Amino acid sequence: MAELLEAAISISLASHMRITNSSHFNFSCHHLNPTKTHNFPFLLSSIPNSRTQKAKSWKLVKPIFSATSCDQSALNDETLSPPTPKNDVLRKNRVFFLDVNSLCYKGSTPSLHSFAHWISLFFSEVSLNDPVIAVLDGDRANEYRRQILPSYKANRRKTFSVERFSRSSFSRSHKLVVDVLRKCNVPVVKIEGHEADDVVATLVHQVLPKGYRAVIASPDKDFKQLISEDVQIVAPIPELNRWSFYTLKHYTAQYNCDPQSDLSLRCILGDEIDGVPGIQHLVPSFGRKTALKLVKKHGCLENLLSAASVRSVGREYAQEALTKYADFLRRNYEVLSLKSDVDIQFEEQWLCRRDERNDLVILSSFKEFLSKTQDLKLQNQSNSNGLKAVT
């Protein structure tokens, strides 16, 4: 299936522009530690199975750069990101981290069409030619947290088992997404045994000392714990059909606390979507109001638990809960906090400007390919139903 998309893109490029020998389409890939890959649960049963290459547990598809791409001056992105004070003369350049998996769903339904839609808007209206690093969940990504808390993302496992997505569908969809990103000059990182969230957190901590602003492109609320003056989020808003920036100022206005305090609050209240139970399951009277008051006063969960171990920090039920269930809360913290020690090193060439000149042709070809695939699938279903009716 990926080969069909490759051919479609090549034909489109040939009809829209002259192909030169400028090496814009010379790709280099580094592969290590081969393993199976099936991260994207999309079922495209109407497409003939193609022989897929063995995927890699640590996969980096390096971007394509022109000889002058690193010398281009920074774009003025005032219209795309929150305004910066006029005295901020030395404005920091941006580097984007793209959370790929989260873009491949329409609601809770896997959808390559959703990925195509949001990635097109992202390139044309948000990142432009700023550097972009795409990150995918690795194989067995959730095992670490599930060993700590077996209920972690258990609901998602049930959803996948009901849908019965085949391994071949995972592999074909994964390859299509990676191929499109590669052709748009985006390096793709995937590390076995690690969720994309932890990989992004690690790379963000590595790029900040280089003097860049990090922008995380994702609707995932877990990234809010990374927000700072130099770390922003840009999220797709389906209701408005656009991406929207979310900064430290937005966060403070919304929650009236700092990101670290919010993480501690989630550890107390739990996260139902991710299958992390809150303390109210054990102590029903310990609600959000009590938790917010204590976290604001003590700053973070560990400070609160340390204080509760030596003196009274609140009403009797809260004091008893904090001392009795301290290990429960620390376990939640370990599960919900993002890791910044994944074994990966940020590469300097990722900071070069992205060559975006072929985005329109590549993404248009991808959307056309998906539309034809959908039409073929519907036609096959219609023919199948017709035969059943005749019989």
Automatic annotation (TrEMBL):
<keyword id="KW-0540">Nuclease</keyword>
<feature type="domain" description="5'-3' exonuclease">
    <location>
        <begin position="93"/>
        <end position="354"/>
    </location>
</feature>
<dbReference type="InterPro" id="IPR029060">
    <property type="entry name" value="PIN-like_dom_sf"/>
</dbReference>
<dbReference type="GO" id="GO:0016788">
    <property type="term" value="F:hydrolase activity, acting on ester bonds"/>
</dbReference>
<dbReference type="Pfam" id="PF01367">
    <property type="entry name" value="5_3_exonuc"/>
</dbReference>
<dbReference type="InterPro" id="IPR038969">
    <property type="entry name" value="FEN"/>
</dbReference>
<dbReference type="InterPro" id="IPR002421">
    <property type="entry name" value="5-3_exonuclease"/>
</dbReference>
<protein>
    <recommendedName>
        <fullName>5'-3' exonuclease domain-containing protein</fullName>
    </recommendedName>
</protein>
<keyword id="KW-0378">Hydrolase</keyword>
<dbReference type="GO" id="GO:0004518">
    <property type="term" value="F:nuclease activity"/>
</dbReference>
<dbReference type="Pfam" id="PF02739">
    <property type="entry name" value="5_3_exonuc_N"/>
</dbReference>
<dbReference type="InterPro" id="IPR020046">
    <property type="entry name" value="5-3_exonucl_a-hlix_arch_N"/>
</dbReference>
<dbReference type="InterPro" id="IPR020045">
    <property type="entry name" value="DNA_polI_H3TH"/>
</dbReference>
<dbReference type="InterPro" id="IPR036279">
    <property type="entry name" value="5-3_exonuclease_C_sf"/>
</dbReference>
